[in-house]
Specification:
Layout lengths: L2 H8 L25 E5 L2 E5 L15 E4 L2 E3 L16 E10 L2 E8 L1 H11 L3 E2 L2 H11 L23 E5 L5 E5 L1 H4 L1 E11 L2 E10 L5 E8 L4 E7 L4 H10 L8 E4 L2 E9 L6 E8 L10 E4 L21 E7 L2 E6 L17 E7 L5 E8 L7 E2 L9 E9 L2 E8 L1 H9 E2 L7 E3 L5 H8 L4 E4 L5 E5 L23 E10 L2 E8 L1 H4 L7 H5 L3 H22 L28 H25 L10 H31 L4 H10 L2 H17 L8 E4 L5 E5 L10 E8 L2 E7 L7 E5 L80 H14 L13
Parallel strand pairs: 7-26, 21-22
Antiparallel strand pairs: 1-2, 2-35, 3-4, 5-6, 6-8, 8-9, 10-11, 11-12, 12-13, 14-15, 15-16, 16-17, 18-19, 19-20, 20-21, 23-24, 24-27, 25-26, 27-28, 29-30, 30-31, 31-32, 33-34, 34-35
Length: 836
């Protein structure tokens, strides 16, 4: 099994990948030596995590010191000073307290995703092969786990909670496995009654990750779990076996109560589902929470298993608006999927508190046959968004779409069989991700009467004029696949995205051998099997579609040239002529594969076009072979073993996958890597602040916002070099920021030694301004690229070729070859006869 093949398979699929071309630093070099990004129009952002280190260098907020330990190193003479921790992939949650910014991280985002696929979703792979392939493909930039200086594995540090003083630069580690045996993966945070609350999956005191809500007292940074789901060993074990997702996310303050989401499992009865709970005094712990919505109360909408949409996103987001509690819910499951390339879109429900403290729930977005005002996903023409993020701005509830990229990743990486059995490497099906790219994300605004307005998006039957901003879906960029976070600051609405082009541009490095699931040598082996099967026909019946036995010494390799010598009768001659032409073409295929099998970095934009042209040529060649085989299969009664051998190499499914890669390449032709950020002062007209992740293609997402006394802070998603923290300082705004009502007055932090602000060696700052985004008065909808697929293979007769649901990955091909070789000693054939 060759590493090159796996490297190609993985080239286009990591939800965090980036192209390999080196780039210079983005930033300017102010007098204090810190890194900044000038976005133009008076917007400047300053890097506050490892503030002197440029882009594409290890960040992750803290410093990894080995043996699973992280610290905040301030001694410039320490060998680990400014080391960073590449494993801290995302700033996954953030909340402010005065000058302090509290941040919870997601550790090893892609490594955890692959572990989940292997351990829970049945996507089996060899970890060593996977790691070697990733390192080879991404020039050691992909983080798959900590390593020692000698290259051997080290212990991973896991998720953390850290706070940063945005005025002084002081930093303090609060929670980590190495410090206090608490490894949090917090996904959301809110402030409530002078306390800070974080929710997510938490490994604590040797226990597995449980869906937990933690309280932090910012006056002394003491912490405690105030709610833990699945807290009995029996319930957790049953939930694990059932694949219940523990990564809870939805949380807000409503009607002066803390409202949280969670999941439950009753091991005795097997009952499970999602919950929404509320407490007016969460400091009292679990007993203070009461359930305000069960799975049934939420119309059985929450999809809470890992196999579901967005890995069981369940209760996704919550917001108080116009006196109501609005909840967005991931609903997609394998059972309710509209088709093989879609999952059911999100729902939104409205909750209202009754006098007795119970809640009444109403469907707003969901099943119209059950009373919902809008269909799943709001617009019937929209089918891609598994979730929706909610923010209130200028008396409207803004709803940002979030496409399901997780299933797209799985489809490209793995051969997913239709019967639900375990899968293996070798999917390379871009059809799901292409459908996502065709429908990039929209932004809606809902008024107090629950009327929907399309702010940013393409024209549809429901919104024939398109978005009021004049911008097409994804702000005019197909690669924007999440409206990941929104934040109101200084009277403006800021919007950050997830940009999938960092993930998909290396798809151009696929080799043809990867797409069809085998190397040239494996193709040759399968061709030899086909020739041997044809030879067996001759041996059994004494008349040959290949040759006579005396023309080849026993044991000599049968070549395609001898096909031309075959002659017995008119039917035989017709068959021999047809099969000879096909075998000749198939014999040449390894040369085609070998001529295009080198995995190389994308050096410039032209290489994407070159790769596209190469794939088109191969698709045409492959289509001609498939058409030839289909004609033979339609005209002759081929033995099942021979048909199976041919169809291992030639199938419409493989051709469709080749064309899906070509379509994906077309989308990537004009894409710019790195997250986008936009700002609006009126909710309609947007100014572009960046479309390049602040000049860093590894920053594929803007994941969190928070507002300290010093200004607007944001955290990136960067699973290669680690998350980064940035700030737009209050003096850069027209109106200085003030703490929110629930945020106490600023504390007086203990001053620490000022961090060294000498730029890191090798850093070459430069200014990269971004112009104001001025859309045309009438926007043209973003359309799918025009794809000219290879010609469809000829239709088969009634007794046509049985099509496989997915391509054969290498392990299956090898098993097939071995199994067929063994079976050759006992198989029997019916002679190939012309169909009447």
């Amino acid at each position: 099994m060759k590493t090159r093949t796996f490297a190609g398979l993985l080239a286009g699929v990591m939800l965090a990948v980036t192209a390999l071309t080196p780039m210079t630093a983005l930033a300017a070099e102010p007098e204090n030596g810190k890194i900044t990004y000038n976005a133009g129009e008076g917007y400047t952002f300053e890097k506050i995590s490892h503030p002197t280190k440029g882009t594409m260098s290890a960040d992750g907020i803290v410093d990894y010191i080995g043996d699973g330990k992280v610290e905040v190193i301030t001694d410039t003479n320490d060998s680990n000073y400014n080391a960073g921790d590449r494993g801290q992939s995302y700033s996954w949650s953030a909340i402010a307290y005065g000058d302090w910014l509290y941040v919870g991280t997601c550790y090893a985002a892609m490594g955890n995703t692959l572990t989940l696929m292997d351990g829970v979703l049945g996507d089996k792979f060899d970890k060593d092969v996977m790691e070697a392939a990733l390192k080879a493909m991404f020039n050691n930039t992909f983080f798959y786990g900590q390593t020692k200086p000698d290259g051997t594995p080290d212990t991973d540090s896991e998720g953390i909670l850290v706070k940063v003083n945005t005025k002084t630069g002081e930093m303090k580690l609060l929670l980590s496995k190495s410090m206090n045996d608490v490894a949090p993966m917090f996904r959301n945070a809110v402030a409530y009654k002078d306390k800070l609350y974080f929710c997510g999956s938490v490994h604590a005191n040797g226990r597995s990750g449980l869906p937990s809500v933690y309280e932090i007292d910012p006056t002394d940074d003491s912490y405690k779990a105030v709610y833990v789901g699945l807290d009995s060993l029996q319930d957790y074990g049953a939930a694990y076996k059932a694949g219940v997702s523990t990564g809870i996310r939805g949380m807000c303050v409503y009607n002066d109560e803390l409202v949280i989401s969670n999941v439950y499992m009753n091991a005795a009865t097997g009952e499970s589902g999602a919950l929404i709970l509320a407490s007016s005094n969460p400091s009292e712990g679990q007993s203070s929470f009461r359930t305000i919505a069960t799975q049934a109360d939420m119309f059985n909408y929450p999809a809470y298993h890992y196999e579901d949409s967005i890995y069981g996103g369940s209760v996704w987001d919550m917001a108080e608006y116009n006196g109501h509690l609005y909840v967005s819910i991931c609903t997609g499951t394998p059972d309710n999927a509209p088709d093989d390339n879609s999952m059911q879109s999100f729902a939104i429900i409205r909750g209202d508190r009754n006098e007795d403290g119970t809640y009444s729930w109403t469907q707003l977005v969901g099943d119209q046959s059950q009373g919902a005002r809008y269909v799943f996903g709001i617009d019937p023409a929209r089918t891609r968004s598994g979730a929706a993020n909610l923010t209130v701005y200028k008396d409207k509830l803004y709803i940002g779409e979030y496409n399901d990229e997780e299933i797209a990743l799985e489809r490209i990486l793995f051969d997913k069989s239709s019967n639900g059995s375990e899968s293996s490497l070798g999917g390379i099906d871009c059809s799901f991700v292409n459908a996502n790219l065709e429908q990039s994300v929209n932004l809606y605004a809902m008024d107090k009467s629950e009327n929907m307005e399309l702010v940013m998006g393409d024209k549809t039957y429901m919104f024939p004029n398109g978005g009021t901003s004049g911008l097409g879906s994804g702000f005019g960029h197909n690669e924007n696949q999440y409206i990941w976070r929104m934040q109101v600051y200084d009277g403006k609405l800021y919007v950050g995205t997830f940009d999938t082009s960092s993930l998909l541009e290396p798809i151009g490095q696929f080799s043809n051998g990867d797409i069809i699931g085998m190397t040239p040598e494996q193709w040759r082996q399968q061709m030899q099997l086909i020739k041997e099967l044809l030879q067996l026909l001759m041996d059994k019946y004494g008349t040959s579609p290949i040759a006579t036995i005396d023309e080849n010494e026993e044991g000599e390799e049968v070549t395609s040239e001898i096909v031309d010598d075959a002659a017995s009768n008119d039917e035989d001659e017709a068959f021999e002529s047809d099969i000879a032409g096909l075998v000749d073409m198939m014999d040449m295929t390894p040369e085609v594969l070998e001529g295009d099998s080198t995995v190389t970095a994308l050096c410039d934009e032209e290489s994407v076009d070159n790769r596209e042209n190469s794939l088109r040529d191969f698709a045409d060649y492959y289509s001609n072979m498939l058409e030839g085989y289909n004609e033979i299969s339609a005209n002759y009664e081929l033995p099942d073993d021979l048909k199976d051998a041919f169809e291992t190499l030639l199938s419409q499914d493989k051709l469709d996958k080749i064309n899906s890669v070509i379509e994906c390449l077309i989308y990537m032709r004009d894409a710019e890597r790195g997250f986008d950020m936009y700002v609006t002062e009126d909710g309609t007209n947007f100014t572009k602040l960046t479309t390049s992740g602040f000049g860093d293609p590894y920053n594929h997402g803007l994941r969190v916002f928070a507002i300290t006394n010093q200004g607007l802070c944001l955290g990136t998603a960067n699973p290669f070099y680690g998350t980064q923290l940035w700030i737009q300082r209050a003096e850069e705004s027209e109106t200085p920021s003030t703490p929110t009502p629930s945020t106490p007055a600023p504390s007086t932090p203990t001053p620490s030694e000022n961090p060294d602000i000498t730029p890191a060696p090798g850093t070459e700052p430069s200014v990269t301004p971004a112009p104001t985004f001025t859309p045309a008065p009438t926007a043209v909808p973003t359309k799918a690229p025009v794809v000219t697929p290879a010609p469809a293979a000829a239709a088969t007769a009634a007794k046509g070729i049985p099509q496989t649901s997915d391509s054969f990955p290498l392990p299956i091909v090898v098993l097939l070859l071995l199994g067929s070789a063994v079976a050759m000693g006992v198989m029997t054939f019916s002679y190939c006869r012309k169909k009447k």
